[in-house]
Amino acid sequence: MLPYNPATIKHDYIRERCCCPTFLIALGGPWLGVLGAVLTHKCIIQRLIDLVWLGVSTSFEEQRCLRVSKLFHCLARALCRLRDWYHTELPTFPLTATPSHPRFFPSVTSYFGASGEVLFRYVRPLKRYNACVVFLAEIVQPSKYNGQLIVVKFAARYCAEAHELLALADMAPKLLHCGQALPGRTGLLLVAMEYLSGVTAHCLTLEEWRSYDINSNVRKIVNVLHNKGFVFGDLRPQNLMYVNGSFKLIDFDWAGKEGEPRYPPFVSTGIHCPPGVRPCALITREHDMECLRRLG
Predict the structure, then answer these.
(1) Are 125 and 196 in contact (CB under 8 A)?
(2) Which of 1, 99, 152, 274 is the most exposed place for a label (fewest CB within 10 A)?
(3) Can you tell me the distance from the alpha carbon of 153 to that of 193, in angstroms, rounded to the nearest whole number?
(4) Rounded Cα gap, residues 226 and 259, in angstroms
(5) What is the pLDDT of residues 109-128, one digit of tens each?
């Protein structure tokens, strides 16, 4: 048994009330980095700015000095607000709480739908790995939708047009919202859609895979996209849902009008990728058809 440590007891008091938001200031020679950290069931650290050079090399540095000054001013204000927040009365919950507690999920809990603001509560992550950005949630407000299950995901890019096209054909879950996760701030997108009670195709047995004629069914979905000029780019069993006897496509992060979307810079180019797939390459319908062929 560990010896009694007053400092540990003090830290537990804080951890029982929040996820311990922290600024991390990194210095390496003339370079400055600012990172943010929180504690959920693990420690999460994210870079908040690119490395900033603090040195002076010429007399033409006025604008850069102003930018650095603004950075320090914003950081000072943020640290003051964080200190004041720690001094407020925070709610208490046991450290053994289940992962349904809000501290284990993103802080964004609402979006603006067609009829106004929708408030939701996270239930659980939909995938088991630590980097999961897709969650099962339930609507809290408006009251007429209270308890309705939805899927909430966060993405850097998303083709709502392709998703809505297939949703209208009952080939994808109904899209409820796609917009900035934080209104007024560009960057991360929040995507909300109906929850489908089914399984992804990679969970099907070999017998089910053969009997459901996956290739023929999925070909119909791909043809709808291609006929409207869209490409998908990520046609894998993990992105196919089997629901009540039919298949639906999910995950439209890479989709878009043919000739526009490109593969991410860090896309895997393993042996399962079609020829021509490489980082930042254009996504083509030929790639989609090759992925479809490989579904068997």
Answers:
(1) no
(2) 1
(3) 9
(4) 12
(5) 999 887 789 999 999 888 87
